[in-house]
Amino acid sequence: MASLVIAEHDNHSLKPSTLNTVTAAIACGGEVHVLVAGKDAAAAALAASQIAGVSKVLHAESDAFANGLAEHMAAQVLALASAYSHILFAATAGGKNIAPRWRPSSMWRRSATSPVWTAQTPLSDPFTRAMPWPRCKPPMRSK
């Protein structure tokens, strides 16, 4: 199945964290789709379509997305979630604000994964998660 990346942008250009998130989605395997939700965000959607590895860009245009409020973004992600095996948010304040609002663990009976440092193969244990201690990256499994 495909992975969905939630783009971070200022309605004109993509933020660098989106490129990092796309790289992580590519490592998960399958197609990579990017959601650009905003007001007058056509330029950001065009930039997303030019990222290597992105096969599809979903552009949601509405006044509700003008300021990137988490509640509106979470509702849009929820509407699209069933078509994706992975949904990736940047490990920024914006991504960490949106991600918990649509509660994937209660919907899919799976745990949400904390911020990821690296994605590995095989996908039986794909993620190394950040730990609060410096220079400490013990592998952790997501069940």
CATH H level: which superfamily?
Answer: HUPs
Report the mean per-residue pLDDT as an integer: 79
CATH class value: Alpha Beta
* CATH architecture level-2 label: 3-Layer(aba) Sandwich
Distance between the termini: 19 Å
Descriptive account of the structure:
The protein is built from five helices and six strands; from the N terminus they run E-H-E-H-E-H-E-H-H-E-E. With 143 residues, the protein is of the alpha/beta class. The chain has a single domain, classed as HUPs (Rossmann fold, 3-Layer(aba) Sandwich). A four-stranded parallel β-sheet has the order 3-2-1-4, with helices on both faces. A two-stranded antiparallel sheet has the order 5-6. The longest helix has 13 residues, at 16-28. The radius of gyration is 15 Å and the shape is globular. The model is unreliable at 131-137 (pLDDT under 50).
